[in-house]
Amino acid sequence: MAVRRKRRIRVRPSPYTCRMSRSVSLPSRRRRTSRDRRVGRLLRGAAVAAAIVCAYGAGIVSGSGSQRHTAVAGGSVLDEAAAKIGGEAAKPIGRDDLDRAAIEGMLRGLGDRWARYYSAREYDDVEGRLTGHYSGVGLWLGDDGRSRVLVASVQPGTAAARAGVRPGDVVTGVGGASVDGWDVDGVAKALRGRPNEPVELTVERDRRTRRFHLVRTPVTAGDVTVTDLPEDARMIRVGAFTRGTGRQVRAAVTGRPPSGRPEGGVLLDLRGNPGGLVDEAVETASAFLPDGPVVTYEPRGRPVEKRTVTDPGDTGTPLVVLVDAGTASAAEIVAGSLRDRDRAVIIGSRTYGKGSVQEPIRLSDGSVLELTVGRYRTPSGRNLDGVGIEPDVAVSADRPPKEAERRARTVLRGLRATLPDRD
């Protein structure tokens, strides 16, 4: 939930204000007596007191009341400030830039770390990514809480995957420019572009700098990867919850030719999954649940919404969910619901802990505000924001990824052993 901070407004004089001066004639000087000085002090004191009373009473401490109201009546104070800055600042700046700076300043005032402002074109790129159709290099990005942008996951078959970019790589440069001080959105925007355009990606891995020369290509939906494992098990890797993800997961669980249903169990890999669409997360969890709650959504100023299973899913196949510090948001909804409903064993390291939901709000010019509008809770009522999910079986984040997969297969064998024999 967005935390509103009270703004402290301090009024202080500006010692460098330049004022126009005018000449006045002064009376001839004469020698002043002590009585004159006392009378003068009394008169000055009375005059100052009267001036203060009149100033506050008439509202003209910093400009006349009528002038102030006239300025506001002709437009907002923001409009007035933008006009002054655009017309008088030493450095030229356009109104569009000023509007964006003002909006982003208001968002910072919310204290909402997930609040974003997108131009119409920028948001088209965001929507393209969520629908699984965009032009880029095939990366999902996240942050580590220390102002560093990380590779959260790499979509198989993309330029980044072919070049050898790995989850956990720290992005230090794009296109030859340092990304120091950039946020996730800024880096993502720099990596997207027209098909067949080259872009250089610089990362830090194991304290060594690595440079990748990538070529942007059209990227289609491919955030679900299915791999058949020994002992009739299946790994379903979900890189992000883009549109259609839930349907693809359900198809992989219920079986598809020629391999059919994974009788030996499912490894649902959510490692490095930064989230995505809540509807797709609910659909994914539903693929493993019979009915009942998946997540509770608590929007601001509206009734609590309970999201339930969309269509009964597989409840008998052994299930293990792999998570790590890059598992966030919608991915935590899935892991949290399956754990709370006693449907899965969670293996890996503690998840990110993002328990908030953002919604886009379209403005009149086509630009978009994305604001935190509520929190979600798991079926047992847990708020994961800033806490995350502690796995049932912990595997240190320092261990290679294959170690968690090995442990997961061992747990699957144990789960299979507890199942009744099938005739």
Automatic annotation (TrEMBL):
Keywords: Hydrolase, Protease, Serine protease. SUPFAM superfamilies: ClpP/crotonase, PDZ domain-like. Residues 136-192 form the PDZ domain. PROSITE patterns: PDZ. It comes from the Bacteria. PANTHER family: CARBOXY-TERMINAL PROCESSING PROTEASE CTPA, TAIL-SPECIFIC PROTEASE. Belongs to the peptidase S41A family. This is S41 family peptidase. It comes from Actinomadura meridiana. The lineage of its organism: Bacteria, Bacillati, Actinomycetota, Actinomycetes, Streptosporangiales.
